[in-house]
Amino acid sequence: MAWQLDIxxxxxxxxxxxxxxxxxxxxxxxxxxxxxxxxxxxxxAPDIHNKIAAAGVNNVDVMISTNYDMDHLGGxxxxxxADNAWQLANHVAGLAVAAAWPHxxxxxxxHVAAAAAAMAVMHGATxxxxxxxxxxxxxxxxxxxxxxxxxxxxFQSAQxxxxxxxxxxxxxxxxxxxxxxxxxxxVNYAYAVAYKAGQDQALGLPQATVTANVAWxxxxxxxxxxxxxxxxxxxxxxxxxxxxxxxxxxxPPLWTGALAGHVETAAAQQVVIPPGFAARPxxxxxxxxxxxWAGGAPANPATAPVAVVVSGPNPAxxxxxxxxxxxxxxxxxxxxxxxxxxxxxxxxxxxxxxMTCGDLPYDGEDALGVALxxxxxxxxxxxxxxxxxxxxAYTCGHHGANTATSNPAAxxxxxxxxxxxxxxxxxxxxxxxxxxxxxxxxxxxxxxxxSVSNFYLTNCRHVRPEVPYSAAPAVPVIPQRGHPQKGRVxxxxxxxxxHLGDIQLSVTQAGSQGAPGAGSYTVSYWDRSxxxxxxMAPAPGVALDPVNF
Length: 549
What we know:
Layout: E1 4-9, E2 18-23, E3 33-37, H1 45-54, E4 62-64, H2 70-100, H3 107-122, H4 130-143, H5 150-170, H6 183-202, H7 207-226, E5 241-243, H8 253-260, E6 263-264, E7 271-272, E8 282-283, E9 306-313, E10 320-324, E11 327-331, H9 337-340, E12 344-349, E13 352-356, H10 362-372, E14 377-378, E15 384-385, E16 393-395, H11 416-421, E17 425-428, H12 440-448, E18 455-457, E19 487-489, E20 503-508, H13 509-512, E21 520-527, E22 541-548
Parallel strand pairs: 3-4, 4-5, 5-8, 13-16, 16-17, 17-18, 18-19
Antiparallel strand pairs: 1-2, 1-20, 2-3, 6-7, 9-10, 9-12, 10-11, 12-13, 14-15, 20-21, 21-22
């Protein structure tokens, strides 16, 4: 049994999102833990979802919003709202396809039955009203004339069933709460259910597959109605434990609605909650809380990766604080209250450590750099283990702003955090912006830090001497790898192509257990300037940089 740790810093433009996957291939899914920290803006939700799917993850265990700024929170809102939509779509699809399936031998009749059943469900029929669903199907099968066009029959069935059900309900035969308020939207959704169900059934697909595909299609329509990026989550976040900064500052209404299961099913913004929706576990995580194994330690806890909360707001007054091991947390004061209170997490894998703290400013980072390398952290079984020798990799606070990674007024080089943490691989997550991120002081300090082998950026749209391919949409002519400047831009950086600037750190158990200087991991990213054949121009491709720590 051997653990693997993969850390994905995702390109979400001007924002941040980090996906952490700890797995043991021998133990399988039962030993896999996934943590999603931040989500960029809402439009990044599909890219994040696709990355999670590509990583082979079928459940996100923990989701953290480090603060309520929309370049951290927006994508998480989009993912949870889409997951709520999928739960509603799955409810409708399950009942509608099951009610129509006895008529699968007759394609035209199957369309009629699926549309009628879907309409009954949207009027409030649940599993407790199966007789009403069956009755609606029967009425429409007897009413809608058989014509060669199955889609036309589905549309007529949806319209007819809507009228019949309204008459029944108005006549004193109530169902549950209506899921869709407007007749037009109900007809559109019911038709979409019938069309997709009929299409897949005609291909000979089994009932379970037809149901899943119908849920996928309807979820996309619900997302479009709600004005969020269309995607089907397949319930990826249904049981996710959610952590945020609580009520230390007022949370955005869309976030509280997403947590509550809200789905907008009509243009008038009618909000419903999917039948059977179970509130996701939600908590304010105290300092020092271990996150990945809160549900129980794995079979081999001594060597498993862990994730520990190391910064966040004081629940009593909202003031930001940084972890200090057995000592009282120290206040974080040098930036805005929201940034000071950013939730920070350190991921520990034997001698390897990775830190990401949202928009935490330099005084919080400085305090953590000393504390994390000098005080024990819990392992997966809760036992205290000596701190790591260094913070091998970290995301630079606040997207490379000069309020983090260094004290702008400091004359010491390297500054406190870089001196105590001695990182090998800083990572800056930023996109097109006017701030400007990354700041010239930040990139200069990273270049000057002796411990830093290279630093990586998801984008760099401002010219920085330490980043050879910053602000350059043209294909670079000199390879980044081996360049004396340490900045490495991932992806296309706004140039031609469709490669995102995702950056992946991969650590094996053997690599994590190496003595100081002999530990190892890799950094992979899309490099537009990979060295080509001798004498030829650079060719783009996936770069794999080995790093010792």
